[in-house]
Amino acid sequence: MKIVIAGGGRIGGTVAAVLSEEGHDITLIDHDSETIRTASNAMDIICVEGDAADPEALKEAGVSSADLLLAATEKDEVNMVCGIAARRLGAKHVIARIRDPRYLHQMDFLRDVLGLSQIVNPEYECAKEISRILRFPGAARVDSFSKGSVEIVEHKIPVNGVLDGVVIRELQKTIGPKVLVALIERNGNALIPNGDTMLKAGDRLSITGASKELRRFFIKIGQYKKPVKQVMVIGGGRITVYLTQLLRENGIDVTVIERDRKKCEELCDLIPEAHIVCGDATHSEVVQEDGISSADGFVSLTGDDGDNIITSLYARSCQVGKVVTKLNSEHFAEILFNSGLDSIVSPKKIVAEQLARYVRAISDSAGSSMETLYRLVDGKVEVLEFRVEEDSVCVGVPLSELKLRPNVLISAIIRGRKSIIPSGGTVILPGDHAIVVTTSGHLRRLDDILDKHQ
């Protein structure tokens, strides 16, 4: 596909790298010459220096023949104008990044009026991911499928943990709840397990199951933590506003600490239900005075990775039950995970996954049935949700008889409101949703899981 990306910042640059790796022809527009130079040196893409809202710059970038334009500059209004111009110039699909909380409840209206195919809001998507993590404080990461019918959670086996030495085929007999280990990350390598695989201390497991079964699982292995009721949030940006609204809807008390007084005044208007504190959270006395000892959740959301790391480490030393850290740079993620800060979120990665899913869907001429896409283990593994079509070759065949490609696992099937952990005798039906874990390449349709050489 021919894709034009307007804006080469964190979001635009990350998306350009991801989609370029998937084999698409990428053209990047940005008004900053240094951004253009850096992108041109780092990626095999075409770069155009210019204003994303200028029709002449869009024409130079080839928008008139583009399959997709992503407007991802820092300004919502520029993205809207860029989207309108791209649609008028002939772009087949247009996606705009719109972040202002004031527009949250107008997304459908804006999409229709502006003629957009989709609107992405990185901060809101990040807030939703954090709220899922706080609902499952025993897990490092939580990804949701089919509106929460099935979730995949990440858990690291501690030394002498209940799961240390357990063979996969004995898992349900040993533990009880109906869950499935879909992925093991061991020593930096991704492993899709079979029944003979033995779990070891230090393994990071991605476990699939219904929410109720996953809670039972964490109770059985002694890693269950009580639901979060009081959360301290550091930083008063857009993610904080969205997150506070989501948490308050679930009856969770929120304290926000922000050092900028003007921003604090704005927060009082935007989220009056939260307790707003004006102070510097990198000073221990500030967070102590404002109740970190009584908080069971802590989220660091400043724009500075260093501040987020420092405050998160301090919260962990204060024995806060669940700590979530936002990082813009991925270099520290592995170090932080080994230090106990295992819940790391990145808005740019979340949006890159969202857009990669959308691009795959529209790039398949036969029409993709993919509805959800997550990347794990630094992008080495993909977890996908497919809607099962009537003409799928997989329909009506017991899973034990399907000849799957190497390193592919069907980890769950969703039928209506019922989630099924599959066995060899399970049969997929039209209308089901199948959750697939793979390390073997880019899948667009469910039938791509089959090994066509067998």
Keywords:
454 residues; alpha/beta; Rossmann fold; Alpha-Beta Plaits; six-stranded parallel β-sheet; 14 helices; 31% helix; globular
Quick take:
This protein has 454 residues and is an alpha/beta fold. The protein is 31% helix and 25% strand.
Describe the secondary structure blueprint for this structure.
Blueprint: E1 2-6, H1 10-21, E2 25-30, H2 33-42, E3 46-49, H3 55-60, E4 68-71, H4 76-89, E5 93-97, H5 107-114, E6 118-120, H6 122-135, E7 141-145, E8 150-156, H7 171-175, E9 180-186, E10 189-191, E11 204-209, H8 211-220, E12 230-234, H9 238-249, E13 253-258, H10 261-270, E14 275-278, H11 284-289, E15 297-300, H12 305-317, E16 322-326, H13 333-338, E17 343-345, H14 347-363, E18 370-376, E19 381-387, E20 408-415, E21 418-420, E22 433-438
Parallel strand pairs: 1-2, 1-4, 2-3, 4-5, 5-6, 12-13, 12-15, 13-14, 15-16, 16-17
Antiparallel strand pairs: 7-8, 8-11, 9-10, 9-11, 18-19, 19-22, 20-21, 20-22
Please explain how this structure is put together.
With about 450 residues, this protein is an alpha/beta fold. The protein folds into 4 domains: about 1-120, Rossmann fold; about 125-220, Alpha-Beta Plaits; about 230-345, Rossmann fold; about 360-450, Alpha-Beta Plaits. It has helices spanning about 10-20, 35-40, 55-60, 75-90, 105-115, 120-135, 170-175, 210-220, 240-250, 260-270, 285-290, 305-315, 335-340, 345-365; strands spanning about 1-5, 25-30, 45-50, 70, 95, 120, 140-145, 150-155, 180-185, 190, 205-210, 230-235, 255-260, 275-280, 295-300, 320-325, 345, 370-375, 380-385, 410-415, 420, 435-440. It has a 6-stranded parallel beta sheet, with helices on both faces. The chain has a 6-stranded parallel beta sheet with strand order 14-13-12-15-16-17, with helices on both faces. The two termini are about 30 Å apart.
